[in-house]
Amino acid sequence: MRIALFTEVFLPKWDGVVNTLSHLLEHLERRGHQSVLFAPEGGPDQYAGTPIVGFPGYPFPLYPELKMVVPPYLNVHEQLEAFQPDLIHLINPVLLGISGQRYAHKVGIPVIASFHTDLGGFAEKWGLGMFSEPIWGYLRWIHNQADLNVCPSHATAEVLVGQGFENVQVWPRGVDTVQYRPEHRDPAWRERLGVDGPDAPLLLYVGRLSVEKRIKWIRPVLDLLPEARLAIVGDGPERLELEEYFAGTPTSFPGFLRGRDLAQVYASADLFVFPAANETLGNVVLEAMASGLPVVAAGSGGPLDLVSDGETGILFDPDDPQALVEATVRLLHDRALARRYGAAGRLHAEARTWAATLDTLLDYYAALIQEHAVPQIAWLNSA
Q: Which fold does the domain 182-350 belong to in CATH?
């Protein structure tokens, strides 16, 4: 297959979308497919054998890490004519993806669009609820021009269907269980994160530091349990405010981590806490589970597909910050229960290989290409 992909975010930015896309490009290369990626400029010229065509972008006011690229239709048209794709994949389409969509409709090839980020829900958390419905309306207009819409969890699929999105299917996500595993626990990292001894509990949050993640909800746990330590890993627009908010508590901010450092930090913690309520999946939750950590997460969105309440962790009422505190304190007090949840979470993660989840997407690709080929063959035969 020859696949042209359009993304609104790519390297050097790193988040769940880029993580998934990177694994997808690597998988396409392993399976022997050809691909080209259209993205905001600033990243590499190629990745995993896929050439990357970059375009100037401008920061999205509500989400500065998202670069808005005005649809460069003529340039994209020329590039696509040279590549001759069988299918267009739009990843989190906002503006740049429209170019690929126009080309696909013109030449009669299928379009698949993947939904990754709940911008409408984020707008409400940012105090900009008036923009939520216009955002949903715009995204609905884009996605409903695609032949198939995929999203990472059943909870997100329900939201999309409720918002009027059509042809919605779940494309689950995987996790690297070799990179993320309990054996990477490292006493040196625990010491760097302020843990005094082997028995002092270390709480962990990993992700974007922004208001919609509701990281401040974790602070009361530290007030109740002075022996607990907290590591907040990541970066984002709320970092300085969070550092001030957690001042005077045993909280460390090691910044943005990747690779072995991130894997060791996961495995060196004792409990993963994820307060966010508008996640389409929550890749970090899956990485924490692969690392053997019990999870406390909001009972909404993507974590519903990942965390089995009372088996691999605790899902708390997403509208009740006190419920997060109670669930976290319970697992810190009952370390045997926490260990059982962590072990069960590791088993769950082992079943979610990237190869299996990405082959699901390739099956979607192949089915769409075949569906579009059949009418063309029928027309040729009738002629």
A: Rossmann fold (3.40.50)
